[in-house]
Write a structure and sequence with these properties.
Blueprint lengths: L5 H8 L3 H8 L7 H13 L6 H8 L4 E6 L3 H6 L1 H16 L3 E6 L3 H13 L5 E5 L6 H10 L3 E4 L9 E5 L1 H14 L5 E5 L5 H16 L9 E3 L4 H11 L6 E4 L2 H13 L9 E6 L3 H4 L6 E3 L2 H18 L6 E4 L1 E5 L24 E5 L3
Parallel strand pairs: 1-2, 1-3, 3-4, 4-5, 5-11, 6-7, 6-8, 8-9, 9-10, 12-13
Antiparallel strand pairs: 10-12
Length: 363
């Protein structure tokens, strides 16, 4: 049976094709009686307008693109992206938007998907997870194309784009300061990739916390990871000869890998080495020894990105915005804070980032 057309609905209701089109696209220039008659015919015949045709008529597709600069294997093994995507998808569902998903792991991927993102006319806007040097090319091309755009994570060039982030410097400062207040003397860090803003900012926060307390920077206590558990394991193996008594790992996955390497070396946690991670993903509280970590609102982060993009799409907001979300230090077992009150030897609160709060959780 051939599918119904606008002309079929028009003939059945005795109105013009353009009137049917106006009803479908919620145009105000239709009388209530005609609107009800056309809508009744649409429901009776189970007519579904073609999505592309509706988009051409309304210049609005209710479809958002999500671009993640990651390989498929990394995306499915890094729990951060699962929670970020959940927040994005939930917000799209709540606002009746469809989500189109693109993984861009290479220049070849970028060249292949860019015409589909910007040239098809089927996307109202784009969310990009960023923070790496290599992402600047596609961000610049999206800006030049004039497509509504929100970047998750501070890009290296942020003057002309709207982006969401946390204050990674202050959050890392706060995490490192907590280890100092626990009396730890040789605090190491497993930093993120130096090709990313998040890696550089969290390393800066670590360095600043030590410097402000008059603690010399020891480069043997600084190593780089890749935000994976395996990367954390090998990074900790590189740190162990320097005999750290505490480690600030800049992701939970790396912290868990580092804890495993520490135990494999015959050391105990937190007696020999204390740990603080970053993210507060579910893995942090499901491990055998629960991880003290800096919580960032990953799911809410994704949802806020979508809502910010929809504001651009529906209200024409064009001025670049910077949205900084809060973090919390979640104190559990791995940092050696055995009490459940104010951290011992606490420093003046004016040295602690106002965006970071302390939450103490019992098992």
């Amino acid at each position: 049976m051939p599918s119904l057309t606008l002309e079929d609905i028009a003939r059945e209701t005795g109105v013009s094709r353009s009137t049917v089109s106006r009803v479908i696209n919620n145009s105000p220039n239709v009388s209530d009686g005609v609107r009800q008659k056309v809508q009744a015919a649409i429901q009776r015949n189970k007519y579904h307008p073609h999505a592309a045709a509706r988009a051409l008529a309304s210049q609005h597709t209710s479809t958002i693109g999500l671009i993640l600069p990651q390989t498929i294997s990394f995306f499915f093994t890094d729990p951060y992206y699962a929670h970020l995507t959940r927040g994005i998808a939930q917000a799209c569902n709540q606002h009746d938007y469809t989500l189109a998903f693109f993984l861009v792991a290479s220049t070849e991927d970028e060249e292949r998907i860019f015409p589909r993102v910007c040239g098809s006319g089927m996307l109202d806007g784009v969310v990009v997870q960023s923070g790496h040097h290599g992402d600047q090319g596609i961000i610049g091309r999206l800006v030049d194309a004039g497509l509504p755009l929100v970047v998750l994570g501070r890009p290296f060039r942020s003057d002309n784009v709207t982006y969401l982030d946390i204050d990674n410097i202050n959050a890392s400062y706060h995490a490192t300061s907590h280890l100092i207040r626990q009396g730890r003397k040789r605090i190491a860090t497993i930093a993120g990739p130096s090709t990313s803003t998040v890696g550089l900012d969290r390393l800066e926060g670590y360095r600043k916390a030590l410097t402000d307390r008059g603690i010399s920077i020891d480069n043997s206590l600084i190593t780089e990871g890749d935000f994976t558990e395996t990367g954390g394991y090998y990074a900790m193996q590189r740190l162990l000869p320097a005999k750290p008594d505490a480690v600030f790992a800049t992701s939970d996955a790396m912290a868990i890998g580092a804890i495993r390497a520490t135990r494999d070396a015959g050391l105990t946690i937190p007696q020999d080495v204390a740990f603080v991670g970053f993210d507060d993903l579910p893995m942090a509280s499901l491990t055998e020894i629960q991880l003290t970590t800096m919580r960032q609102p990953v799911v809410q982060f994704g949802a806020q990105g979508v809502e910010t993009l929809i504001d651009q799409i529906e209200n024409g907001t064009t001025s670049p915005r910077r949205i900084i979300m809060d973090t919390e230090l979640i104190i559990r077992e791995t940092c050696g804070a055995s009490h459940l009150g104010r951290p011992q030897n606490s420093l003046p609160t004016q040295n602690i980032a106002s965006s970071a709060q302390i939450v103490i959780q019992e098992k």
